[in-house]
Amino acid sequence: MQKKLPLSFYRRDVHTVARELLGKIFIKKEKNGILSGKIVEVEAYDGRIDRAAHSYNGKTKRNEVMFLGGGLLYVYFTYGMHYCANVVTGGEGDGCAVLIRALEPLEGIDRMAMNRFGKTAIGEREKLSLTNGPAKFCKAFDIDKNYNGLLLTEDIIFIVEGDNLIPGEIVASKRIGIKKSADLEWRYFIKNNRYVSRL
DNA sequence: CCACGGATTGGCT
DNA sequence: GCCAATCCGTGGA
């Protein structure tokens, strides 16, 4: 097993971290085994200048984890039924985070299938939609508010080295599903990867 | 106190 | 492509 990314990886510029997270392996250790996947799509949020960021209007109970500094997991609940997970970046007080939008499933696919569809026998179409969206990935990995504020250098949820991408493999585009600061091209994804949520 | 709407998804037309 | 589902944080009265 590869070494966990250190705190210093996360405590940098949010766009640098967002781009470098692509190709890396997101891992959750459970009693029954490991769930893992390659990160293929992310979005950057910067509360200092970005009106779409939850942290834009300052610290609240919901977003406080975003202000605690790089290396924490920020999990929020939305639309009355979905969780989404972010990696906090930068320094304390910055209010920056990278939303994990999609993974390519690697280990524990049967358990992801159970979490998403309630069965292990899935076809190609279902496999492709296991983790190709921020709430789908949280459902597959059974990530909810209990994981909010978790330190990514602990032995529960963490990220390790994976594929080394060349700049030409990374595409930047507008972020999905937001109305404010909608023109910023702060979504990054791996070109031609089948598990990206949308083109 | 109350109303609004959201970093989404899946089902139906 | 359109829209309902379903909570709760947030902001205004």
Automatic annotation (TrEMBL):
The keyword Mitochondrion appears for this protein: no
One Pfam family here: Pur_DNA_glyco
Keywords from the named record: DNA damage, DNA repair, Hydrolase
Family as reported in the entry's similarity comment: Belongs to the DNA glycosylase MPG family.
Signal peptide range in chain numbering: none
EC number of the protein: 3.2.2.-
Classification via HAMAP family: 3MGH (MF_00527)
GO molecular function terms listed in the Swiss-Prot or TrEMBL record: alkylbase DNA N-glycosylase activity; DNA binding
Protein's name in the database: Putative 3-methyladenine DNA glycosylase
Species assigned in the record: Melioribacter roseus (strain DSM 23840 / JCM 17771 / VKM B-2668 / P3M-2)
